[in-house]
Amino acid sequence: MFRNKTASIVFFITLITVTALLIGRESLLGKVNPGENEHYTKIKTFTETLSIVKQNYVEEVDEKELVNGAIKGMLNQLDPHSSFMPPEAFKEMQIDTKGEFSGLGIQISIKDKMLTIIAPIEDTPAYKAGIKAGDMIIKIQGELTKDISIQDAVNKLRGPKGSSVTITILREGWEKPKDFILVRDVIQIKSVKHKVLDDKIGYVKLTQFQQRTAQDLEQALNKLENDNIKSLILDLRNNPGGLLNGAVEVASQFLPEGKLVVYIKGRSGDRQEFQTINSKHVAYPMIVLVNEGSASASEIVAGALQDWGRAVVIGMQTFGKGSVQTVIPLSDGSALRLTTARYYTPKDRSIQTTGITPDIAVKPEVRENGQTHPVIREKDLKQHLKNDVTKEKETETKKEEKQEPEILETPVETSEANDIQLQRAIDLLKTWKVFKDLPKAG
Which residues are catalytic, by number? Predict the structure, then answer.
């Protein structure tokens, strides 16, 4: 956790000194708050354990790794979204938020213990080289990727603009792997995509909520309005969320000024409200598409638009992440991602574990031999926070925890023609126009 060994020694001397001062204070004052005394006794136990391990373990140990491991273990006792980020991981998070990095332009995951490409990003080195979704990266620079972590893979694949990296790809149907030599470039992660569909229907897809998402969304809406759109589909499917302020700014594009978007409550119970500002785009009929991959900031936007009757929500039950994480930088460049509050929709709904229920439920079509991935929601994660609004009976909660999570399959990629949820949204907007244009009975 510390920059060097000297800083580490100072830290532990400080801990021991604090403990000694508490003991001295007890002697002087004759009494110490029992809870406070117990707290520092446990810190003393930690320093004793670290000292014993460092002096007596069968092999030499890295003190920094031990401390980092202890912090990770501490946060692992909380909820699934609280975590310790070493300096590299913290930088990675900042890059994701900014939406720009130097690399190849691929989204990766671990599937069946293999490093697998989810999708290449358009107009990037990987995309131009013909890398495809489902490709397995079996080597990076000649080193096997078996058992590699996502973070280690990202560190190997990213690098300075203009530098090259060789990845060995195995693709279904190939007899043997193939090497690709790719030159890294600056990758702009576009969080907003837009186009015009049939019958002057505007379509906007948000892939995540970054610093520039609201600005890029406004530009996209301006372009669509120049094309004289009459209605809009906002696609939040598989959008994992991002910045809370970004969600408020996005909702502000569709709701009148001063409308409540979301409020949060922390441990103290104090309520902090976030309202719309500078709203411009409020005129046309609107549909929001969601699915089990819509989480956090996506659920804030969908919930607000649903609560205010601004849009019809179509798709599947969302992920159900109704908690707020605060990123707290530490002195050595690392950071804590700590769950500090829950958030609630304008109508006082907590979506923690329950998610946003669509107005019209539409399941995606899973075609034979099509690529799928399992559906996992917040309620399936271990140690998830409970929903404090929809109180479950204790017996029902225990029964649910004993059951295996329901694992469904959903398509990885679907063409527009086969996208049942999108087609249903288009049909509804066309019907909307028909009913609107019907003459009133005399």
Answer: 296, 307, 321
